[in-house]
Amino acid sequence: MTSAKLPYVVCHMVPSIDGRIVIDDWKVPKGLHAAYEATAATFGADAWIIGRISMEPYAGQAKIPPRRSRERIPRTDYVAPHEGTAFAIAIDPSGKLRWRQGSIDHEHVVTVLTEGVSDGYLAFLRDRGVSYVFGGKARIDLKRVLAKLRRHFGIEKLLLEGGGKINGSFLAADLIDELSVLIAPVADGTIGAPTLFDTDHARPRTWKLASMERRAGDLVWLRYRRR
Fold first, then answer.
1. Residue 181 belongs to a domain with what CATH number?
2. What is the pLDDT of residues 197-216, one digit of tens each?
3. From CA 15, how far away is CA 27, in angstroms rounded?
4. 3-state secondary structure of 75
5. DSSP assignments along 119-131, one per residue
6. Same domain (yes/no): 206, 225
7. For the segment 66-91, what is each residue's pLDDT rounded down to a tens digit?
8. How many angstroms separate the Cα of 159 from the Cα of each of 24, 32, 175?
């Protein structure tokens, strides 16, 4: 059960009827993307969070310069100067994203790392104006990360919009308060394709239906809350 000191987490996704989430080969219904963004906006979230691979198109491919200083940078959280109260958060344990800048459409970037990242990469993030928090020495402790996001940045509501593994990690840690699925009228059927939740560690959980709504383009929006 989540604590009052953690953000309220809404997993908001657009799966196929059979739960697949990679839409590249779908005949996407007209207005799907607009409907997804419109339904997401109704939550009034302070931030959204995804994994490294999903974040790569937003981050860019900036070159990481060699670091001349040999002084070790302490493995403590870093809050870069920023304006506004909206945040884009990436889970990037090994520090592979090459950020062009410290914001995405005026949303301040926060990246979640493990302590094994190099000093050179931390210096690069600081130079780009990217904030970072550490989720653990070698593995990410999501509950610890959520507490830090609330404490450092005042994030009270967070949209989880990750791939199956990231979403599955939150599910396994019992950190999802609400599930919002905008079901596309597509039956994918691809064996091995990522699904809404992909994890080896979660136990089945039941949810309470909060609302259901038919949307244009044969979309169905379902909202569930934890029991």
1. 3.40.430.10
2. 999 877 888 999 999 999 99
3. 13
4. coil
5. HHHHHHHHHHT-E
6. yes
7. 888 888 999 999 999 999 899 999 99
8. 22, 18, 12
